[in-house]
Amino acid sequence: MYKNSNNDLWVKFLAGDNEAISTLYKEFAHDLYSYGRRLTKDEHLVKDCIQEVFIQIIDKRRKLILTMNIHIYLFKSLRNKILEVLRSENRKQSIVYQIAADENNLGRNAEQFMIDLEDEKDTRKIISNAISNLPNRQGEIIYLKYTEGLNYDEIAQLLQIDKASARTLLYRSLKSIKDQMGK
User: Fold this and answer.
1) Domains of the chain, each with CATH number or no CATH
2) Residue 64 above 90 pLDDT?
């Protein structure tokens, strides 16, 4: 068909002639398919998009304007539709991959959390046992430093020892705990 007859069909379609769009479809379907296959190798996607383009044209008939080149209009519409679908599929795939990765991480993180919690519980028990085996004065300095958060000056004042002795006592207490935990 010639460009003028295609434009005449477009004018008829816009005026409400349904046969005109059918004729336009028959006229351009093959060319649109060939063009669509250059954009994607998925022939089903191309066929679906061609159908979608014509469905949208029919649905929006009242809002469409007279175009000077229906050929370019259809090709551009098909290109936009294919790219829209491909972008949407890429987003969906990306989301699916992200959800799968998150689910795996959640499972691993929950499992790791439980393991860490159990390890921490065991470590606390070992430390608690090691502290309870310390002489009273060493246990007291560990309590004052790490539970009450006192500094060396405050510990020295409370225990009535000098600051250097407080440091030495704490060092020996920690070394003793470390030695017990090593066993």
Assistant:
1) 3-88 (1.10.1740.10), 133-182 (1.10.10.10)
2) no
